[in-house]
Amino acid sequence: MAVARTESPGLSRYVLPILGLIALGLCGAGILVLYDPQGGPNLLASLYDALGNTSGATALRNGEGDQVVAKILLAVIALAVGVGGIWLLFIGVGGAVSMLQAKWRDRILPWVFVGPALVLLAVFLVYPAAGTILRSLQDDKGQFTLANFAVMVEPEFTQILRNNVIWLILGTGLSVVLGLIFAGLFDRIRRESLAKTIIFLPLAISLVGASVIWGFVYAWQPAGQPQIGLLNAVLVGLGGQPISWLTTNPINIICEIVILVWLQTGFAMVVFSASIKGVSGEVLEAARLDGANERQLFARVIVPMIRGSIITVSTTIAIVTLKIFDIVYVTTGGRFGDDVVANRMFHEIFQFFEDGRGAALATLLFIAVLPVMYINLRNFKRQQVEG
Amino acid sequence: MAKTLRTTSALAGVVMIVVAACGSSSSSPSAAASVAAPSVAAPSVAASVAPSASAAASAAASAPPAAAVPTVPTGYTELDKALGADKPFSGKKVSIQTQWVGGEGTNFAASVADFAKATGINIQIDSIGSSHETVLKTRIEGGKPPDLAQLAQPTPVLAYAAQGKVIDVATFMDAKKLSAEHPATIGLVTQGSKIWGIPYKADVKSTIWYPIKAFAAKGYTVPTTWDELIKLSDKIVADGSNPWCISAGGPGDATGWQLTDWVEEVVLKTKGPAYYNDWINHKVTFQDPGIKDALDKYVGKIFFTPNYVFGTNTAIVPQDQKTTMDPMFTADLATPKCWMQKIPTWYGPDFFPDQRATGQPSKYVLGTDVGIFPFPTIDPAQKNAEGSADTMMMLADRPEVRAVAEFLATPQGIQKWIEAGSAISTNTSTPAAWYAGAYKLKVAADIANTASAIGFDASDLMPGKVGAGTFWTQMDQWVNSGGTNTDAVLKAIDDSWPAS
């Protein structure tokens, strides 16, 4: 744009809209390809035809041949249309609005940029959430009922709710405390970044991947068979009996929480570490002059000063533990007294065909997350005021 | 075997399972009230009864590379059209979603390949694997279902039918022919005059796998009665080994289905088909003495007698179904650490340790190294066996979909899979020659032949909340407790039965 302007302002007036129109057309064509279920293979087949590879094209049209290439092509188009489309939308509408009178422009412009996000939020978050709450209050025939919530006091559901509370307390607590300890200790060692990297690395692993990895740690074989699980191998090596970690309640809940802590400690540590670095050296020096030892310094000065970060990290991890699904689903399916709300919700809907109960569980989860969200938002606000 | 979905008990009530082989003696009149009767693995039954048919078939089969396509006229309208010289449906697409992956997926694809070639219909198979039912539900409710879908249990088929999502195949297929050819299984998906699916593949569950040569070396004989089974087990214990390898089916989501199979087996063999049906419909509760006996007197006897189970009863639940039988293969099956496993006919060499480790075909041969014997009779008057069947459900009504559905209803629809040695057709007109040489299928056919009634997997017919929920989890708890909490466990299952 800048280049065009220096060369010839007259030309750019036409070039930009034309380029825009071409891009718009490409976007439209891309959407058409994406909409057609056979779009990827067909497009690639046309390309092959143009390149003279007729046999390849026929194979593609018959659902054989380079299907993977077709899928990659489709992914590239999706990415281009998605990112480019949004970019075009903002540029285009922004440009159109800026042609208006200043008075109107200032009023409309913010909505142009917030609008798409609001629409997406309404369609993909508010609408389904409202639908879920409504469904939780209906029976299978659409009549109003509270039965879906009434069953939540039965032992099998109170056990699930209890498990979620255990997750919330232990999962969040351990991650935050360990993260804080590591951040505090690593602040004073020589190879700080190396140590932090080691703790931080697991965060790059997905919950499912981590569950599979830990599945091998907890693996069990009958006594007398070679133990392939790390924990049991150590246990048997020391002369003990193998323990079936994942099927023995309540040990299995702790074992699953350990997986989450392994992942989340790194996140907590990195945030805390950054905050600790932000604590001014003068304050620390003043405290030391006042006679505080290092432990007091950490507990009475540093921790209160990074309170904001602690709240943010705690609430973030708390929400993760409330919504926890992957770990339970992969390790045991929640079959051994270790079920949690999100996993049960999935089972109610997809295995028991109890959509109402599933919706009720989702609603419960939503309500449980609300206070955590509130704390988090209030914390943000206060930080803004302080800042 | 995967999870079941839920339906109301009213629906389950409509489903009557029990079947009498060979349409013979003990047919179960009241039980079969709603629909037709005989035999799950009847294909081979019928064939063995009618030698002329099998002779003709073997003659046909001896011209090897013949395409697995039925000859016109097939008795089905769209199928005849599709196979016509003008290939009217050529280029049309039909999608089938299944849970079959790996070997099963390959075999199913091979079964429809010749037909696709002959008709020009582009058959797209979506092999989903373990999340099949989840994906299917999403696709159906999203309004873009596959044209056809396989389901291992009749319960969800009827549940989708109740929602109006399933095409009644009786509207375009010859219902009489369909019912006559699938006498054992069509009743599972029939409601009145409506037929909600096509029975496709059958499995026999009353099978126990054992090491043949080691049995011979020790002088053990295959038990045919419960007493002999217990005597043999005691003898193995006396010889310093553990007779049983048992897994609950896990680890993970489906843990428990093998335990429910044990209970079902014993109920069928002690109480018979009518009682079994009432149990499925909850007319007989879990707290009924018959069910309690099945647990305490029979299943518990195997599970909890000291030294019977390799690793003791506490090993059953955490044991992985994939590796359960590994101890049997100690020293190339010469000195098994456990001797018997009850597992259905779909089990096979792909679970043996050498094939699992290398991916190469197992060196252990079925019928020479590893054998299968029928689960022994308990009450001599109850010669019943347990089975299960896969159903093809039609979700879109177009001529080419009809043609594919009709093709799947013919024996040729599963011919390649049968010839690969790992499927049993639900269709009684299947030529016996196709099963030739397949040890596993021969055993299954023998079981079906000698059984007076075959009960469909009960937990698969109960509401999902019970059949894939509490029945599994409570059995896990029962096994872990060493059988001390039978009453509490059975009450918990009864309490979880949906009210509606």
Describe this structure as you would to a colleague.
The complex is a heterodimer of chains A (387) and B (500). In chain A, 77% of the residues lie in helices and 0% in strands. Chain A has 2 domains: 2-99, no CATH class; 149-386, MetI-like fold. Chain A has 387 residues and is mostly helical. In chain A, α2 (9-35) crosses α5 and α3 (39-51) packs antiparallel against α4. Chain A has helices at residues 2-7, 9-35, 39-51, 54-61, 67-98, 102-136, 147-150, 155-186, 192-200, 207-218, 230-237, 251-278, 281-289, 294-305, 307-322, 326-331, 341-350, 355-386. With 500 residues, chain B is α/β, with parallel strands linked by helices. Chain B folds into 2 domains: 9-204 and 386-458, 3-Layer(aba) Sandwich (D-Maltodextrin-Binding Protein, domain 2); 207-384 and 459-496, D-Maltodextrin-Binding Protein, domain 2 (3-Layer(aba) Sandwich), CATH 3.40.190.10. Helix content of chain B is 40%, strand content 12%. Chain B is built from 20 helices and 13 strands. Chain B has helices at 9-14, 42-49, 51-61, 77-82, 102-119, 132-141, 154-162, 175-181, 212-218, 226-238, 257-270, 273-280, 289-304, 353-358, 399-409, 415-419, 439-450, 458-461, 464-481, 486-496; strands spanning 93-98, 122-127, 148-151, 190-191, 194-195, 198-204, 207-211, 242-244, 338-342, 370-374, 384-394, 424-425, 453-456. In chain B, the strands form 3 sheets. In chain B, strands 1, 2, 3, 6, 11, 12 and 13 form a 7-stranded mixed β-sheet that branches. A 4-stranded mixed β-sheet of chain B has the order 8-9-7-10. In chain B, strands 4-5 form a two-stranded antiparallel ribbon. Chain B starts with 8 loop residues before the first helix and ends with a helix. Residues 1-64 of chain B have low confidence and may be disordered. Classes of the chains: A mainly alpha (387), B alpha/beta (500). Chain A binds chain B through residues 62-63, 156, 220-225, 244, 246-247, 329-333, 335-336, 347, 350-354, and chain B through 3-7, 122, 124, 133-134, 137, 156, 159, 250-256, 310-312, 314-315, 317-319, 323, 326-327, 337, 463-465, 468-469, 472-473, 476, 480, 496.
